[in-house]
Amino acid sequence: LLVSSMVGKDRIIFATKEDHETPSSAELVADDPDDPYEEQGLILPNGDINWNCPCLGGMASGPCGEQFKSAFSCFHYSTEEIKGSDCVDQFRAMQECMQKYPDLYPQEDENDEKSSKDLEAASMEASAAKEEKGSS
């Protein structure tokens, strides 16, 4: 008999001795060398954003995933002289969404503009890595 209950964001599962004596039915799946998302980083070879990249820390999923994708896509593909200057509305929508979920998206101090600088830095690093990869 398995008993499951939620405590905050964690799930506690109680298992009996018999549960542990039953062999596991879990199957391990070998890494697929042809998986296009495997170790690709933030930007895929074709220039698309890899939404499955662990570097995004799950920002592309969750309650504000769509707003994050919209803002980050806008920034990534921006051709403005000041990159991302045409994405203010998308970033505002993302920020407003995140404020509704303070436990999931801790807010930085108002003086600290870290989150937008982190996005910009991540994009710049990805661009540099892409250029470096392409020049070899």
UniProtKB/TrEMBL annotation:
UniProt GO MF annotations: protein-disulfide reductase activity
All copies of domain CHCH, residue ranges: 64-100
GO cellular component terms given for this protein: mitochondrial intermembrane space
Keywords: Disulfide bond, Mitochondrion, Oxidoreductase, Protein transport, Redox-active center, Translocation, Transport
Localization, UniProt: Mitochondrion intermembrane space
Pfam families per UniProt: CHCH
Region (Disordered): 102-136
GO biological process: mitochondrial respiratory chain complex assembly; protein import into mitochondrial intermembrane space
The name this protein goes by in its record: MIA40 protein
